[in-house]
Amino acid sequence: MAYYPKNKIKTNLSTGGGEFQTAAMTVTEGNNTYSGYYYKLASGKYYTGKFPGDGVNEELFPLNPTTTPPLSLPKTSTPPLFPTPEDYKNGFFTRYFKKKVNEFLIQELTLDQFQQETSILYTPFSMEWRLTGTDIDTVYNINRNMSLLIEQRSNISGFNVYLNNDYAKYYKG
Asked: How far apart are CA 136 and CA 168, in angstroms?
């Protein structure tokens, strides 16, 4: 539990509802609002509970009738996942993904979806996917090594499980 000087925190505040939502409420319950005790930090952030350490302190997001809640449901449309003739000419193309931070859920995205991804519930990432090479084994190994590196360096556990060992996908000899 963090310590905050008295001039950096206001504790024991309460709301009857209509002022705040938690991230979970925003994503799963639509327009439900938080009611109960909360505290405010000097940074302007709000958390559930009378004080830090009072149960599980979830961040609260102030509701403003003129704005929408800070989180949105994940985009689920299926992107066109096929490389273009220009990509084959270049020998690679970029694949875009997002991983849910608190569970094993990875989704492939279009470039537009990737650029619009702002949810704090997901970690967006991308990789260059090799399409051509001297032989299929070379392409397979390049893509496999790159995906293992992404999984390790970016802490994207389960990425290689998601790819299902299909590292020669889209290969053209």
From this structure: 7
